[in-house]
Amino acid sequence: MFHTQLRKQSFRFSNIAQNYINGVWKTSNGGIALERRSPLTDEVVGITKQTTQAEFNEAVDAAKTAFKTWSQVPLPTRQRYMFEYQARIRSKVDDIANIIVEEHGKTLADAKGDVIRGLEVVEAACGITHVMQGETVENLAKGVDTYSYRVPLGVCAGVCPFNFPAMIPLWMFPIAIVTGNTYVLKPSERVPGAVTYLTKLLEESGVPKGVVNIVQGGFETTKHICEHPDIKAVSFVGGNKAGDYIYENASKTFKRCQINMGAKNHGVIMPDADKEDCLNALASAAFGSTGQRCMALSVAIFVGKSREWIPDLIAKAKSFKVGPGHENIDIAPVSYKELYERIHYLVGTAEKEGGKLILDGRSFKHPKYPKGYFVGPTVIDNMNTNMTSYKEEIFGPVLNILYADTLDQAIEIINNNPWGNGTAIFTQNGSIARKFQNEVSAGQIGINLPIPVPLPMFSFTGNKRSFNGDANFYGKAGIRFFTQMKTITSRWKEPSDSYTLSTAMPTMK
């Protein structure tokens, strides 16, 4: 089998996901949190154990101890660690991508994109000296100066999703540690291999023991993160149920939170759009990554005569090749069985509620992998916003089709949706595009671009029910999240100056 051969030939990791605490790899003494199954064969290929409370406390203690020295490491030195780390990741993109293909099931091209988009955040961390600068104003009063600077928070923690095994962890700990914090990271229990490899590369980069610690497990580990009093900030990417739990419970212990959650992203197709370019973008964004991304364009709103293009969209969807990620294909299997079953259920509800399946990929079976979690491109017409499959995040290669007579109607549909991760419009009219970007309620807007995920000099700015917390991921917002301001007002008096005895509020003169 492919996954067995790959494991033997390329990688030397245990089938049991290990913790990494104070620079030592350890197998947990806890029970089994999850049996990891191949998305191609449904066979058990590894287990993730549940980190115990004592092991978790050990990881936090290691991070807390390391913070005392790491926070005092000069900023340019921490920057140089990031230069070394990004070079090591770049040299191993193929190895990390192959781990992701094996565990997650992604196509190899998509897995490489996963790694590279995370690497871009590490590269941005290499410029930390330019964004950590404070502010100074001199001579606010006679002999009085005020200056401020950024300082780290302490021990921070992250909870990662399954869908981007490399990119999302790299959104978290590199920015945290380059700003002087230490970190406790929980990978997804479904795909721990990429984080294991990334941590080994970090270790090879010379980052001291205890600065980054890895704890495996499921809900119990997340619960420990929320409750531990020495953790100062929590990052999370995933579904709304888990995100709401983390936000509510971590906030109770006065932690900062950045919580990226679910989405239902709409693409608006105007009749004046470049037809071929638009349909290529729409099909790629709807079915790419097998729909397993929070920025998937899962709803198409055809405005006016653009609805006449739907047969051409179906033809493009049918042209995609479905198969195992290690082969030259377009659509890989869904990552795990429960999600596969949920996709089938939600598509079924659309049929029962009046939707019309004009392309149904649920029956696809691969001849070599008959037990694989394959779902081909699926398109549901005759949808409305009250249907279950519109109201729920499907997280599969499924496109819902809605119609609008005008741009205003399309904007109203989007603004009435509770999620606000992203949206896109396809048009050749600048005034239409400008109206859309000004009036639509979503955090990330694409104009003739289907998945507008910002590069890391900006921030990932989903809003509404797609985000809870204090500041967004990476970019300047990420720096603000992982640091706090310290402001000093100093007075150096001349020999003739002195305070006058007074109980009044001091003012600057």
UniProtKB/TrEMBL annotation:
**Which GO BP annotation is one of this protein's?**
L-valine catabolic process
Cellular compartments per GO CC: mitochondrion
- Keyword set for this entry? NAD, Oxidoreductase
> Transmembrane region positions?
none
Q: Which domain of life is it from?
A: Eukaryota
Q: Which residues form a coiled coil?
A: none
Q: What class of enzyme is it?
A: oxidoreductase
Domain Aldehyde dehydrogenase stretches: 26-488
Q: Which GO terms describe its molecular function?
A: methylmalonate-semialdehyde dehydrogenase (acylating, NAD) activity
Give the Enzyme Commission number. Answer: 1.2.1.27
Family according to the record: Belongs to the aldehyde dehydrogenase family.
Q: What is this protein called?
A: methylmalonate-semialdehyde dehydrogenase (CoA acylating)
User: What's the source species for this entry?
Assistant: Paramecium octaurelia
